[in-house]
TrEMBL record:
Top enzyme category: ligase
Reaction equation(s) it catalyzes: ATP + [NEDD8 protein] + [E1 NEDD8-activating enzyme]-L-cysteine = AMP + diphosphate + [E1 NEDD8-activating enzyme]-S-[NEDD8 protein]-yl-L-cysteine
GO cellular component: cytoplasm; nucleus
Cited SUPFAM superfamilies: Activating enzymes of the ubiquitin-like proteins
Protein name from the UniProt record: NEDD8-activating enzyme E1 catalytic subunit
Entries under InterPro entries matching the protein: ThiF/MoeB/HesA, ThiF_NAD_FAD-bd, Ubi_acti_E1_SCCH, Ubiquitin-activating_enz
Species of the source: Hamiltosporidium magnivora
Residue stretches making up the THIF-type NAD/FAD binding fold domain: 2-354
Highest taxon in the source lineage: Eukaryota
Keyword Calcium recorded: no
Length: 474
């Protein structure tokens, strides 16, 4: 049996061992990732000496040394570089990736080519081993995408996650692009005191800046920094006394509020109190900033512990200032790096369950309270494209009208729509490309559907246009 393992991380390393001990000796490993320090706590094939080397190469080297009769091939490219024909050469594919886009890519091609796919994944103490191809696919369950409103992140955070995202996406860039190391400046930014406070009863002045002095850039505006611009000679700061004055058209010259000095004093007190009450965390943040500046670090790297320390202490201080409960460094790293927490024991269990899935074609799930659940079939979304009929479309430059005609002949689908990914190519109201010759890239999918059914078209180069139905062997 010819086996493909995609991903040589926590699950992939364990699975390689499980397969060999179950007498599977012809194995191909695919992984374009290199070993980092953070991998060593759960990926036991690797040591400090292996850092920055390819995972797939080290796996093969160490495995062959112990089991010389194993036939292991290594591919150091991304799995998304390979077309349908690549997957068809394998009897079974084990997907051990933590990348949603790549898992979807593999799932689509295995399901289309009727190649047995076993997909494994973990999340802390939870995990699953699912069998795709017979029924269902990776895309049947819609994946949760977490988004945070910009206004909450920058001005009024209400969750610890807001503070972490702010520290990573805004504060990190602000500090290291401008080389900020001063304690007071750092704390002012954390407490939103880096821009001048404007009283509620004043109106900001608008006017064209002098040609010789222009605003630097939109990036600087977001950062709260403005270049000087000369005030127009006819401009006067105004104050509206009441709504009655608006209707009367009466405006009065603006006077500096009596409490302006008091406001400034209070804002200074706020960030100074933050330092006074959290001196240990503030000192750790400043030490971390100095270390990163000294080492000329400017890009976020989830595997750099000092960068994670910076995110952690920044988010912790900001959350305290806004009276938000903070979380520990492990959870902070998970949020900042969009990392699924990995536990070596769970990886080992899931790799074993993937072997059970291969033999039984069953699906296994480790859920809350460490319960193990087995199911005959994984969930299938009846509207997912994996339920559609399958066909291969040949040709380099093809007219949409030719596709429509051939689809009607083969599948009798009327009132259809044609999609290339998220892009609509044709429907009965949109016929702009109907007679245009469109050059389709090989190894992509087109979706043809109406409200009842659909066809999944796999694009393949060919001298002559044709569409051929693919029989489902399941």
């Amino acid at each position: 049996m010819n086996v493909l393992i995609i991903g040589c991380g926590g699950i992939g390393c364990e699975l390689l061992k499980q397969l060999y001990l179950s007498n599977f000796k012809r194995i191909t490993l695919v992984d374009n990732d290199t070993i980092s320090f953070s991998n060593l706590n759960r990926q036991f094939f690797f040591t400090r000496k292996d850092i920055n080397k390819y995972k797939s190469e080290i796996c093969k080297k160490k495995f062959i040394k112990k089991f010389p009769d194993a036939e292991i091939s290594v591919i150091k490219n991304s799995i998304m570089d390979y077309n349908l024909e690549f997957f068809l050469q394998f009897d079974v594919v084990f997907n051990c990736l933590d990348n949603i886009e790549a898992r979807s890519y593999v799932s689509m091609r295995c399901v289309f080519g009727n190649v047995l796919l076993i997909d494994g994944g973990t999340n802390g103490l939870k995990g699953q081993s699912e069998v795709y191809g017979k029924i269902g696919c990776f895309d049947c369950v819609e994946k949760e995408v977490i988004e945070y409103p910009v206004c909450s992140i920058k001005t009024n955070p209400t969750k610890y996650e807001h503070c972490v995202v702010w520290a990573k996406e805004y504060f990190f860039k602000e500090v290291f692009s401008n080389k900020i190391f001063d304690k007071n400046t750092l704390l002012k930014i954390i407490t939103n005191q880096n821009t001048e406070n404007i009283s509620e009863d004043t109106f900001p002045e608008f006017g064209e800046p002098n040609d010789s002095k222009k605003i630097e850039s939109s990036e600087n505006i977001l950062g709260g920094k403005f270049s000087e611009s000369e005030e127009p000679t006819n401009s006067k700061k105004m104050k509206i006394e009441s709504t009655e004055n608006i209707s009367d058209g009466k405006f009065y010259k603006y006077e500096e509020p009596n409490n302006s000095k008091k406001i400034k004093k209070n804002t200074e007190k706020l960030y100074k109190n933050l330092y006074k009450n959290n001196q240990s965390d503030c000192k750790k943040l400043i030490d971390t900033v100095n270390h990163l500046l000294k080492n000329k670090i400017s890009d976020f790297d989830k595997d750099n512990q000092k960068i994670i320390d910076f995110i952690y202490y920044s988010a912790k201080l900001r959350s305290k200032y806004f009276n938000i409960n903070s979380k520990d460094e492990f959870e902070t790293k998970s949020i900042a790096g969009n990392i699924i927490p990995a536990v070596c024991t769970t990886n080992s269990i899931i790799s074993s369950l993937m072997m059970f899935s291969l033999k039984s074609k069953m699906n296994y799930y480790i859920v809350g309270n460490r319960k193990l659940i087995s199911k005959v079939n994984c969930y299938q979304n009846k509207e997912c494209i994996c339920t559609y009929k399958k066909a291969i479309i040949f040709g380099d430059k093809i007219k949409i009208s030719m596709i429509i005609k051939k689809i009607n002949e083969l599948f009798e689908i009327n009132d259809l729509k044609i999609y290339d990914g998220d892009y609509l190519l044709y429907d009965k109201y949109f016929k702009d490309f109907l007679e245009n010759e469109i050059e389709f890239q090989e190894n992509k999918f087109l979706v043809v559907k109406n409200c009842q059914t659909g066809v999944l078209l796999y694009t393949k180069n060919g001298d002559k246009f044709d569409i051929r139905e693919v029989e489902d062997s399941n």
